[in-house]
Design a protein that fits this description.
Helix content is about 40%, strand content about 15%. By secondary structure, the chain is α/β, with parallel strands linked by helices.
Length: about 220
């Protein structure tokens, strides 16, 4: 079945975003609310803890028939049988990850410009994470804030037949801006396949409600804005 990227949850385990909530419960709630794909992103745990938490999250995503991707750590994805990985520009290269995880794995790559996007597309990435769209406290020191203009530049190339692949935007996205971003990504391009969020769901007091609200907005973008 084709992967549904429409509401893409990236997790965060830091107290500033997760608060005192329990990550597996938040992921479960987000899935109830309508998240379609989950990336386990954890920049501080060691490998053993990543595997332990990855296994717990995978049990939950499997129950909802939703893919689990692991940020950065191809070995962790392999160890827990996750559906794939998400790789930044400084992570393991795409070809090596593909060799390790096999042809069925979902391998996503971050791109902040047209060059990175085309390289990932021609290297066999399954989707592109385009960003950082807007400045966000969730990820400091991002090298580039590209805005909707940068997003449209990338989509223009990724809409061409020889580079076609699904795209999600990330960075500072929430219920107040996603309809505008989705709308502006369209025409003359194919437009985005999904919206990726961290804090809009993970930091929410009620992650299920937050996911459901984002879900409704994504599913009901007006024809003009
Ligand atoms: N990559 C680019 S921005 C970002 C990542 C992981 C963080 C996005 O977080 P938020 O809270 O959705 O702005
Ligand atoms: Mg990375």
């Amino acid at each position: 079945m084709a992967t549904d990227y429409s509401l893409y949850l990236v997790t965060d385990s830091t107290p500033a975003i997760l608060g005192d909530k329990d990550l597996p419960s938040v992921v479960e709630a987000a899935l109830q609310g309508g998240v379609t794909i989950v990336q386990y992103r954890d920049k501080s745990s060691d490998t053993a803890d990543l595997i332990r938490m990855g296994e717990r999250l995978h049990a939950i995503t499997k129950k909802h028939n939703v893919p689990l991707l692991i940020n950065d750590h191809v070995g962790v994805a392999q160890a827990i049988g996750a559906e794939g990985v998400h790789l930044g520009q400084d992570d393991m290269d795409l070809q090596t990850a593909r060799r390790i995880l096999g042809p069925e794995a979902i391998i996503g790559v971050s791109a902040s410009n047209v060059f990175e996007a085309i390289e990932a597309a021609s290297g066999g990435a399954n989707y592109l994470g385009i960003g950082t769209l807007y400045a966000t406290p969730t990820k400091e020191n991002t090298k580039s804030i590209i805005g909707t203009a940068g997003l449209r530049d990338i989509l223009q190339f990724i809409s061409k037949p020889y580079h076609k692949l699904p795209t999600v935007a990330i960075g500072g996205l929430n219920d107040s801006n996603i309809q505008r971003v989705i709308f502006q990504s369209k025409s003359p391009n194919k437009g985005l396949d999904g919206i990726a969020v961290v804090s809009a769901i993970i930091a929410a007091a009620d992650p299920e409600d937050a996911a459901a609200a984002l879900r409704r907005l994504i599913d009901n973008v007006p024809p003009t804005l």
